[in-house]
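Inputs:
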Amino acid sequence: MDRELLIEIGCEEIPAGWLPDLTLQMAQRLDARLKDARVDADRPVESYSTPRRLTARVVRLAERQSDFDELVNGPPVSAAFRPDGEPTPAAIGFGKKYGVEVSSLERVQTPKGLYLAHRVHHRGKATVDVLPDVFGGLLRDLRFPKQMRWDAFLEDGKGPLVFARPIRWLMLLYGGRVVPFVIRRTELAQGPLVQDIRTGANTYGHRFLTTSGRAGRAIKVKTFDDYQSRLLENFVILDRAERESRIRRELETHARKLGGRVSGLVAAQSSLLREVPDLVEYPSVVAGHYPVEFLSLPEEVLTTTMIHHQHYFPVVDAEGRLKPAFLAVTNTQAEKPEIIARNSERVLIARLRDARFFWDADRKASLASRVGRLSTILFHKRLGSYREKADRVAALARWVAAEALRQSEAAVHAETAGRLCKADQATDMVRELTELQGTMGGIYAREEGQPEEVWKAIYFHYMPIGVEPDAPPSRQQLGAAAVTWAAVSLADKLDSVVGMFSAGERPTGSRDPLGLRRQAQGVVKILADLPALTGLDVRLRVGPLLARAAEPFGGLAPFREPLLAFMADRLTYLLEQRTFDVRSVRAVMHAGIEQLSPLEARQKLEALAQMSGSQALLGVAGLLKRVKNITKGISVEGGTLEGQPHRSRLHEPAELALAVALDARSQTIRDAAARGDYREAFAGIAALQPPAAKFFDDVLVMADDDGLRTARLALVATLRDLIMDIADISEIAADDRVGEGPRAAGGV
Amino acid sequence: MTLQDLILKLSTFWASYGCLLQQPLDLEVGAGTSHPETLFRVLGPKPWSVAYVQPSRRPDDGRFGQNPNRLFKHLQYQVILKPSPDEVQQRYLESLEACGINPRQHDIRFEEDNWESPTLGAWGIGWQVMLDGQEITQFTYFQQVGGIDLEPISCEITYGLERIAMFLQRVDNVFDLEWGGGVKYAEVRLQEEIDQSKYAFGQVDLSGEEFAALHRDLFDKYYGFTEVLLRSGLVWPALEHCLKCSHLFNILDSSGSIGVTERTTYILRVRQLAVKIAKAYVGETPAPAGGEAGPMPPGFGEARAKPAGSV
C-alpha cells in the first residue's frame, strides 16, 4: 500500500534570497533520489519552505522498491566450452558462484563478443529501509550560494555535512511513522550542549507566537495536513504563495487607510516584494510616519533609504507623490503593533536625518572639485583609480558624440558629463547609499546649475539595466539629454568592458562579479534602440567603438577574439530576449559582430519576422543553402553581373531569365537595404524565387565546359552575395527540404 | 535601563550560562574580535566561553560628536561560545528578554549578514539581528581565523550596546543616553569624541605629509617589532603589536594619507602578520609571506569590516 512521505529540515534562518531555489532543489533532488532508489511516487514531489524549514512531501509513495533484474557477465562463450561442448572450469566456477548449472546460464552479445551471463533477480527492499539513504543523499545534494561548516557529518563515509545554516531538527515520516536517521556531531564539538540530530515526528512553530501552550515547543504531527494545520495554529504559514498574498492584501489595506498606495518603485527597482515572503513565517504589516520636513530631500534618497536599507514600502498619493508614511512587513502579530511602528519610525528618521546631513554637506562642494578625490578610490588594480576612469570616459564620450554620432554640438556637454559622472562616489551620500551612484551625481549636478544635457546624462548613465525595448530611461525621461546620455552611457560601459578584458577579467560561467555582461548588454541595447532613445537614425557598428575604447589600454589586439565573442553573445542574448527566432538571429549575425550594427540587426529581424509566412523567401533561403555549398571559395568582381566576362556564355532560357532578374532587382534591393527598409529588401529577394527555382530545375551548374561552368557559378555567386550582404537567410531554410545529403548534391 | 545596567544584565546572564567574564583588551581595536579572548581562543580544539565589553574604534566613523548615531568609539558586548551550542539562538533571545526586550511585543529577525575581516584573514557566516528594523547584534559562526579553518566552530555574538540602550531608553541621540546614576553619555564621552575625530581626520598641528609620515613610520616600526616578537616565539605581544599596526592603518586610511593601491598593500601586510601569529598560536611553523587566507575583495578594510560601526 502506498503511504505519505513527509520531510522537514528544521534550520536556523536561511537567507531569504536562497529559498526559492532551495525549494525547487528539494523537489528535484528528492524526486531524483527516489527514482534512483526505484521507489515509485504517484505524483511529483511537493516542496515548501519558510526561513526556518525546508519541507517536502510525496502524497503516495510505494511501500517497496520495484524489483529489478541484473545481468552479471561471466566468461566469454569461447572460453566457456571445450571443443567437445563440455563446460570449462571457468564456466563451472561462474555457475557455482551463483549456485546454478552452466546449462541454465544465458548468453549475451557484448561489444567484446558473446559471453555467458547470469540473471540475478533483485527483490525490492521495503521503502522504510531505503529512505535513510534517500534522505542522506538529499542532504548531500542541496547546493547553496555559500555553505558553512557546523561540526556535523553523516555516516555515509563522505565526511562533514556542510549546509546553509545549522540544522536544528529533522522530521522524516513515512506513513506517519518516524524513519530513523541521524546527523552526527564531530567529537570536538559533541557534548551536553552539542548533540546529534535525530529524525523525529516533531516540528516547531513560530519562535514567539502560539495559540496554545508554550511558544516554540515541539509539536508532534502524523500527516502533512496535520502538519500544515498545526503549523498555522502556531503562526507559521507554510505556503509561500499564501504568505505573499497575505502581504499584498495587508499592504493594500494599510496604504488605503493612509490615503494612498504602495509606490510602484518597489516593484520596478527592487526585489523587496519578491523577498519579503521568504523573510517571514507569519507576516503582518505595520504603518509608520515620518516628519513632513524630510520630503524636502530628493525622492530618490527617501525611497532608497526606505526600500533598500530598511525594507520598508514607501506610500504615494494618487499623483504618485511620496506621502510621509511607510509600511513595514513584520514577522509577528504583535499585541501592540504601534510599539513596532514607533520603533521603526525612530530607525527610519535617524537614517533620514543622516541623509539630510549628507545632502547639506555634499552640496557645499561642487562635483568638479570632487573629481580629484576619485584618485583615492580604486576602479581596478590594473586600471587605476576612478580618477583615471573619469578622464577616459570624458574623452570617449566626447568622441562618441562628435565622431560616432556626428553631433558635434553635444560633444562638450558629453565630455563634461563623462568627467563628472563618477564624482558622486566621493560624496558622503553615495558612500552611505551606494545604490544611488550616478543618480545622486545627477541630482547634485542639477542642484549646482548644470544644464539638462549634463545632469540627466549623469543621472541615467548607469542605465539601461534591462534589454527590453522599454527598459528605462525613455526618450521622454531623457529630454534634452538624449544624445549626451547615449554618449556617456556608452563610453562608461565600453570603457569598463574593454578595460576589464584588457586587465584579464573575463566573465566565466556563472561568475561575473564586475557585471560585465550587463554592461555589454547596455551597450548593444543603446545601439539597437538608438532612434527610439535619441531620435538619431545612426547605425553604429560595434567594432569601431571597441577599437576606440581600447586605445587607452594599448589596443584590442591581445584580447580581440574573446572580446568579440563576448559581445556577440550579449547581442544574441538581447535579440533572443526580444523573442526573435534563433535561426533568424544567426542569419543576421553571420558576418561577425565587428561589422555589425545592432540597430540594423534588429531592423532586419523585424522585417524577417514580418515575412515569416513568405514561402518565396523560404524558397530562396533553401536555394541559398545549395548555392553556398557549390560556390565555396568563389568570389565575384564588383558584385554584379553586368560587365562580367562570362556573362555572354549563358544561353539557356532559365539562366538568362535569372541573370535578367538579378540585373533588374539588385539595385532596388541594395537601395532598400541602404535606407534601412529591410522589408522591401527581403521582398525583393523573395521575388527572385521563381527565376532562381526555375534555374536550378532546368540548368546543370556543373557543366562539363569550363567556361560555361564558370559563368554559371558566377551567376549564382552574384545571387549569393546580393543576399548575404543583408543576411545569411540560408539559416532559416527549412531543414527537411534541403539537407547536406545526396539530394542537394544531386541537384547541381 | 542605563547603559551600565545593560552591561551588568548581560554579564550576569552570560556568567550564569557559564561564560568567563573577561575585561576589554587595553589596546585600540576596531572590534571585539581582535581581542585575544576571541582571536586566539577560537583557534584549536579547547572549549572556551567568554564574555566581555570591548570599546571599539572606527576612525572613519568619527563625527566630532555631532552625529546622533555615529561614533569614533562605541561599545561592543562580545560573547564567544566554543563550541557553538545547539540552542544558541534561543539563549541569545533569552538574553534580550533579560534586558527587558519582550520578543512578543517586537519584530525580531535574523537576516543574512556574513562577516569578513581581510586584515585578520577571518570570515564567518551569520546574521544581523534586527529589532523593529534596527540592527542590534551581529551573530557569526566563525569559519576561518588567521587563515586557519576552525574546528570546532565558535559562535560570536556582538551586541551594539549604545544601540540597544538607545532602544531601551527611547532616545534618538546617543549623547542623551543615561550612562548610569543620572550621568549622560555626553558627559562621559562627548569631548573624547570631538578630540578623537580631529585626530582621526588629521586635524593636528602637523602638516598632512608630516602626519602621514609619522604614522607610516610608526606602522613600519610596530610591524618590524611584531616580526621580532614572532621570531622570539612571543605570540601574545606579537598579536598586540599587530593590532597596533591595524589601528595605524585605519588612521592612515581615515586621514586620507594613503592611495588605493597602497591601501591594498597595507591590508595585505597586516593580514600576513595575523596569519603568521595565528599559526604560531596553534603551534605551526610560521608560513612564508603569502595570501594563505585566499583572495581579498577590493575595498575591504578593517574599518568597514564589521558593519556594526555606527550605533
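The first strand of chain A starts at residue 3 and ends at 11. Flag for discussion at group meeting.
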